[in-house]
Amino acid sequence: MKFHSRKLIKPENLNANNTLFGGSLLRWIDEEAGIYTMTKLRTQKVVTKFISEINFISSAKQGDVIEIGMEFVSIGKSSITMRCLVRNLFSQKTIISIEKIVFVQVDNNEKSVPHNLTIEDIKRMSS
After folding, report:
1. What is the CATH number of the domain that holds 81?
2. What residue numbers bound the domain in which 87 lies?
3. Along the chain (127 residues), what's the average pLDDT of each consecutive run of 10 residues?
4. How much is the pTM?
5. Terminal CA-to-CA distance of the chain, rounded, Å?
């Protein structure tokens, strides 16, 4: 798993319990997954198709720094699937895990289009 981005938990990211608001975290994950997909498919024309069960394992508090990790799982004709892990940078404690996030390449009409890449192409880009 490669950790590509970090976020500092600030007051505006907190919920009523003074811990990280899940909606903020999911927005960051969706953005990171989108960027990850764009780099692999070499296009900005991608959309979120599916996010599997989200497992909230521990919380983060104001001042914590979290890391968002993405890992390639598989590709389809027009899609790429990855898994995600978010952890506390300093304690390495897992905050959230998502087994499947699927993005699809689309055309100007937002219809899925083939990306014409193979698993080998994606793996080559990851090394």
Report:
1. 3.10.129.10
2. 2-126
3. 94 96 96 94 96 96 97 94 97 97 96 91 73
4. 0.92
5. 12
